[in-house]
Amino acid sequence: MHNSTTLEELALESGKPSPRPNQPGAPAVHVGISTECVHAGEARQKANDAITDSICCTSTYTFASTQSILDFIQEKQDREEYGRYGNPNEKVVERKLAALDRAEEAILYSSGMAAIVGLLMTKLSSGDEIVFFDQCYHRSREFCAKHLSRFGVVTHQVTTGDFNAMDAAINERTKMIVSESPTNPHLTAIDLEQFVALGKERNVETLIDATLATPFNVRPIEFGVDYVWHSATKYLGGHNDLLAGVICGSKEKLEPVRKLRGILGGINAPHNMYLLERGLKTFALRMHRHNENGQRIAEFLENHPRIEKVFYPGLPSHPSHAIAKRTMKGFGGLITFLVKDADWKETGSIIDACRIPRIGPSLGGVESLIEQPLVMSYFDYPPEAREQFGIFDNMIRLACGIEDPEDLIADLEQALSR
Amino acid sequence: MKFRTRAIHVGSEPDATGAVVPPIYVATTFIQPGPGDWGQFDYSRSGSPTRTAVEKTLASLEGAAGALAFSSGMAATHCAMMLLEAGSHVVAGCDIYGGTYRLLHKICNRSGISVTLAPAHDASQIAAAIRPETRMIWVETIGNPLLSIPDLSEIAAIAHRAGALLGVDSTFVPPCILRPLELGADIVMHSATKYLGGHSDCLAGVLAARDPELHQRLYFTQNATGAVLGGLESFLLHRGIKTLELRMREQCRSSLFIAQWLEKQPRVRRVLYPGLPSHPQHARAKQTMGDQFGAMISFEVDGDLERTKRICSATQLFGLAVSLGAVESLIEQPATMSHASYDAADRAAHGISDSLIRISVGLEDPQDLIEDLDQALNS
Asked: Fewer CB within 10 Å, N side or C side of chain A?
């Protein structure tokens, strides 16, 4: 685990001595999260003295001579080689994300799913087993159940938050335990201390999908989690205009992950990485607002006569409110709620009546998005499977953007009172 | 809808693909229905979907009849000045952007346009500079670099009595804080490179007009002269506008905090920030800007040109650079940088001293910025 970035580190990240060093012997000044968002991971003095990073569109990198290739191979020089192994724009964002998550290292992928596939393909071999808490993104579940199984990897699912069941599902072949926190779409916060303790006790690695929490609200690595996974498409990018995924962890554990990524090739193009870097500059600012909008709108919905139930970890009515309050700084912009006495069509008509949130999958951008999990993600599932996953016909998932909360509340009010 | 909601949604209406972010059109030309039968877009100098989208957002935010996006702030100002003709006279504020000063004194003068500078914070001196041939008054919402505050409503009345237009460069004060058109200005101009774009990565300019006919005249000039904003920059500008209100709120809050701190420093002679009660037009600023006074601070240090240079060079977080308004904090010395294009005599006459420092407060943690200024002032 790393501490927060120091002023000296910001100045030194150019890879060359700072032109303006701190006074020798002066105590390290640790900077605030907003300062990290703007500056961490970037060279202080950039090419051509530009204030922002240039977008380096090149597929390959040239060597001055045969000798310089030999130097690169034999002395393991830190430089670029070929685009599939990474690019300078991606490296800047990896350093920024590692700083924000207090990780030694971060590895970016071209989507959130590419990231988890890259990690699991590195860490698991035929005969290995993993244990999941069952509330999770349906595509993660699908990948493990349908595809990892073809390679002889066994996946167990246990009830979310049931550590006894997870303990019981672990055996000598188990390599990893996995959970989202908070989960999607039920927003259950996991007791990370207990999760890490179980991993240590049973000698298995731990992975948390912290996409909904983000490093603004919780840093699982500070709890001792081995790997943190984010779909950077969401809050980290923040503008609904790029796809990316990231795995954070220790240098040692991630080294083989990076090597496999170099072979499989799920990296990010420089343009995309520039947009992610730019999005991260306002990350702290946006998260403040997502947290504020999420809390206010969850409270509004809970007090609304047409709403049966609201899932939001910032509400005392949520079963994991105590855990969330203890471990999280804020609770994000995602809210799931049930409409009283509504069938799936009536639920859909409320969504259709909203004027500000757009109807669509995804979350975490400046624009609010709304969807009905039954229709968007579970329409092909049989009713018993939907019941098992807790997907109800009258369920709506609202991803609050950063619009004015009064506009969002007024819009929901008119949609609910039609 | 409130400002922030409009910034995110107006101009970003979904197209046939349903994309939540409008596509980036880089096409230079568009296929037409038939000879002499024109579609909505023909040639991208005349209009392009990505530019039109951001122009729609800007018009909504400024409360304008229409907005035009240019390839730089100076291109926008130049387009406004091309409303004038030989023999026209311009009254401009004394502390205006150095580039505007240069445009008026060294380019527009060649077309037979004359200019008189007057202190914009004193409307009576603006009125006194009016001549029968005055066609334009040009002021900044907050003067640069002395951060003076003009009475825009009063100056609008003076302009209109004289049959002149009021153009306001509101680069320092984006529309989430103040909308000059609501106070009577005819044209509002922005260097959108600054707060509107907000990320130091696209050059852009904006003109927005209150009156539809004036908007059409400006559009005619823009189309005829061609300094339009490209598709990629239009996208970056549009993306930046979505977080404009959030950024501004935070940057204004940090700036007040830093200005109050600077005022207490023994090595600082005076601080110019409209949010401080010591600012000569503080009351006026409060009236029109509420509780957000922008994110530019000028201050004079106890020292000569060289000492001031050294302080500007000693910061670690503040980058030494001209420009402003972005997430990264910047520091500069107006005498040698942003206002070097002023004649030395005009600099002296208008109070732009060698010991003046101008900072643009970014999004970093304000405590970090204060620590950086503290070490630079004591270096």
From this structure: C
